[in-house]
Design a protein that fits this description.
Subcellular location: Cell envelope
Domain Solute-binding protein family: 83-449
Strand content: 15-25%
Signal peptide: 1-20
Main location: other
CATH architecture of the domain at 285-501: Roll
Helix content: 25-40%
Shape: globular
CATH superfamily of the domain at 285-501: Dipeptide-binding Protein, Domain 3
Distance between the termini: 6 Å
CATH class of the domain at 285-501: Alpha Beta
Protein name: Peptide-binding protein
Length: 534
């Protein structure tokens, strides 16, 4: 294949004929040679997070990408996007007109990798366990609409919901709803460390140094039953300290493929390189970046301060200086490609203006300049994060309205501090649990939200979120979704900045790379195979 960047549209399934020259996903050799995948995701067990891979706790894209290979869910998002389809289940669906009763039938003969049968009781145990543990990661919020779970026989599971929730099938495709063996996962405590067991397409062995997982070796599960086709026998996922080390490993042939997070410089270099042994694949992504606020913190308690920041920050300039063509300005929590998106922040604030921001502060009698520290994580979203925060600092300080400093902290310290409310302003990213507007709003605005945010808007929580979830036709939810975005733009509990694309770079004998990531950044290792280079 020529050394060109492949740009994949949202409906990725349409590309199969175009990619035939590379070897399609059916071309996996299954010859036993491990495909080695690099990532800069870091997996750390700590006092604050002793069980990073327990489905009842895990809630970031890196840990979920380990669980999705190993712990099976009732539903799964299909290769070509769209509505979720049965996975551990043979069939699932709402059995009432109000979207409040959801029933699934398990596949016949389904077993855990150990050989033990998977039963309806195991499904109930697994999901009830995550709900009752209610860990501080916030992941149990995805299960908040469940009232009770009923089983009938060995294979029937019935979910009775508190309120209508048309997004519930999507939630059953996320790892928090993963099916675990009660023999391996205690009901009343998390499974500490890095062991993972399930009924998914792979089993996994982890290599640990100190308190960090440095390599996960995925081996094809011969007893797997589900909708996925596994095109390889073994994949090794190697965690690198930074993108430069990962890129060097790809050049030297130590790894076959690298994924998140590549630096903007690496993407530009690979796009323009004449070397035809490595292919760069660009695909749509739903990753967003934003500033979050502890709305109880004295520095930003007055929403005029948050509004002024929204009025000053120039997203286009931020992107051009740091990310180039790899990101787009974002004017709402809901990305532009999701049904219900509205440019609420642009509609409210228009173009950046220091004069308008000054008026906001003066009307609220806020002393100028406003002194703030912007916090960011040094090792979770890629090396460009520091440059991004340098640019945000420059823009805010150049307005004459702010006196901003920035502070970077490793994720294992940053995340607990953010949850405890120690930061007034901090930068976060979001890789959606599923591609629906609800998952860009409820995790930030509902009770028990992902950020542990003190911000409360009763109309959003009590009316608009439930109202939007009643609509099975997601277009019909647009009015409620738009109103939520408009409220966020006025109150600014979060300040969306940009929406990113995603990339995979692979040696040219690796097949299935077009499907290695879906739009929610799910790593689909089963799609990879080894073909013929050249």
């Amino acid at each position: 294949m020529n050394r060109k960047t492949l740009v994949l549209p949202a409906v990725i399934g349409l590309l199969a004929p175009v990619l035939a020259a590379c070897g399609g996903p059916d071309g996996g050799s299954g010859d036993g040679d491990a495909i080695v995948v690099g990532t800069t995701d870091r997996f750390t067990a700590s006092k604050a997070a002793p069980a990073p891979l327990d489905p009842a706790f895990a809630y970031d894209v890196g840990t979920w990408n380990i669980l999705r290979q190993t712990v099976q869910t009732l539903m799964v998002q299909p290769r070509g996007e769209g509505e979720p389809v049965p996975e551990a289940a043979e069939k699932c669906g709402f059995t009432d007109t109000g979207n409040e009763r959801y029933a699934c039938t398990l596949r016949d003969g389904l077993t855990f990798a150990s050989g033990d049968p998977v039963t309806a009781a195991d499904v109930k145990y697994s999901i009830d366990r995550a709900r009752s543990l209610k860990t501080d990661s916030g992941v149990s919020g995805l299960l908040s609409t469940i009232d009770t779970i009923e089983t009938q026989g060995e294979r029937e599971v019935i979910f009775h919901l508190k309120t209508a929730d048309a997004t519930f099938p999507f939630k059953l495709s996320t790892p928090v709803a993963g099916i675990v063996d009660p023999d391996d996962y205690a009901k009343d405590k998390l499974r500490e460390g890095f062991e993972v067991d399930g009924s998914g397409p792979y089993t996994v062995q982890t290599e640990v140094e100190g308190d960090e997982l440095v390599k996960a070796v995925f081996t094809k599960n011969p007893g797997y039953k589900g909708t996925l086709t596994v095109n390889n026998d073994k994949v090794e996922l190697v965690s690198f300290e930074d993108a430069d080390a990962m890129g060097t490993a790809l050049k030297q042939g130590d790894i076959d493929l690298m994924t998140r997070a590549m630096t903007p410089e690496q993407v530009r270099e690979l796009s323009n390189a004449s070397d035809d042994t490595v292919d760069l694949v660009e695909m749509p992504g739903l990753e967003i970046r934003y500033l979050a606020f502890n709305t109880n913190a004295p520095e930003v308690e007055d929403k005029a301060v948050r509004q002024a920041m929204a009025q000053v920050i120039n997203r286009s300039e931020l992107i051009s200086r740091v990310y180039g063509s790899q990101a787009e300005p974002l004017y709402s929590l809901v990305p532009a490609t999701i049904t219900g998106h509205s440019n609420s922040f642009f509609n409210t604030y228009g173009d950046p203006s220091a004069d308008k921001a000054r008026s906001l502060l003066e009307r609220a009698d806020v002393s100028i300049p406003v002194k703030l520290t912007l916090h960011y994580t040094t090792d979770h979203y890629g090396s460009a994060t520091e440059l991004e925060f340098e640019e945000l600092k420059r823009q805010l300080n150049d307005s004459g309205l702010f006196d901003v400093s920035i502070e970077g902290t490793p994720w294992k310290t940053f995340r607990p501090a953010e949850q405890k409310g120690e930061y007034a302003v901090y930068g976060m990213g979001w890789f959606p649990d599923f591609p629906d507007a609800d998952n860009f709003l409820a995790p930030f605005l509902d009770a028990d939200n992902f950020l542990s945010s003190p911000y409360v808007n009763s109309e959003i929580r009590n009316t608009l979120i439930p109202e939007s979830r009643r609509e099975a036709d997601r277009l019909s939810a647009a009015e409620s979704v738009t109103k939520m975005q408009d409220i966020v733009a006025d109150d600014v509990p979060v300040l969306p900045l940009w929406q990113g694309k995603q990339y995979v770079a692979a040696r040219d004998d690796i097949t299935g790379t077009a499907y290695a990531l879906n739009s929610t950044s799910t790593l689909q290792l089963w799609e990879l195979g080894r073909g013929v280079s050249g």
